[in-house]
Design brief:
This protein is mainly β and 203 residues long. It is built from no helices and ten strands. Strands 1-2-3-4-5-6-7-10 form an eight-stranded antiparallel beta barrel. 7% of the residues are buried.
Length: 203
């Protein structure tokens, strides 16, 4: 058996910055926190199956920014706010491959099947009663690297590299249901926001 915990925290601040010749005078900040406990059973050498729960909290604010499209179009953005909280549960199958003779360093990859429920808001001003609720079923692939500083303790880093998901989003305006969207999505990318670091105890 093995029990582990993965954590990710990212913080972003911008003060009077310019981006890609399109956004000027950007004053913004954003942060994201992710916590994911997991447990797995090793059913044979270098192969394990387990369950993972994940909580994610993200938020951001744009105080001021100016969008300039080649000098032909200008738009000023002020006091934009966004927030999102989500809970997910998933099962995964993990395969390890050792990289040294002592078995201290290796790579692994996870095949993940999970369900996520999230609540998001995007608004201007101090508060809003508009929000969206999303349910997602996803299948993903997440490779990583692992190091064993002790025989029964490992530390690892992994990233969600590719996946396929079905999304159902319900939109609420002034607290009342106003619409629903259904969408299938596929992705394959490298993003620092999908990077997780964790520690695992092998029993």
């Amino acid at each position: 058996w093995q029990c582990g915990l993965s954590v990710m925290y990212a913080d972003f601040n911008s003060d009077d910055s310019d981006y890609m010749l399109l956004l000027k005078g950007v004053n913004a900040n954003a942060s994201m926190f992710r916590l994911a406990p997991e447990a797995a059973y090793t059913f044979r050498n270098n192969h394990a199956v387990g369950v993972r729960f994940q909580y994610t909290n993200a938020g951001g604010m744009v105080d001021t920014a100016t969008a300039d499209l080649l000098g032909n179009f200008n738009m000023t953005l002020e006091n934009l706010n966004a927030s999102s909280r989500s809970l997910s549960a998933s099962i995964f199958q993990r395969t390890y491959v050792g990289l040294d003779n002592q078995g201290r360093v290796g790579i692994f990859w996870d095949y993940v099947l999970g369900v996520t429920r999230s609540r998001s808001q995007f608004y201007t001003g101090d508060s809003s009663s508009n929000y969206s609720l999303k349910k997602k079923i996803h299948l993903g692939f997440a490779p990583g690297i692992v190091y064993f500083p002790m025989n029964n303790v490992s530390i690892q880093a992994c990233i969600s590299l590719a996946g396929l998901s079905y999304n159902m989003t319900k939109v609420y305006s002034d607290g009342q249901f106003s619409g629903v969207r259904h969408a299938w999505k596929a992705y394959s990318n490298l993003s620092i926001l999908d990077l997780n670091f964790g520690i695992t105890v092998h029993l």
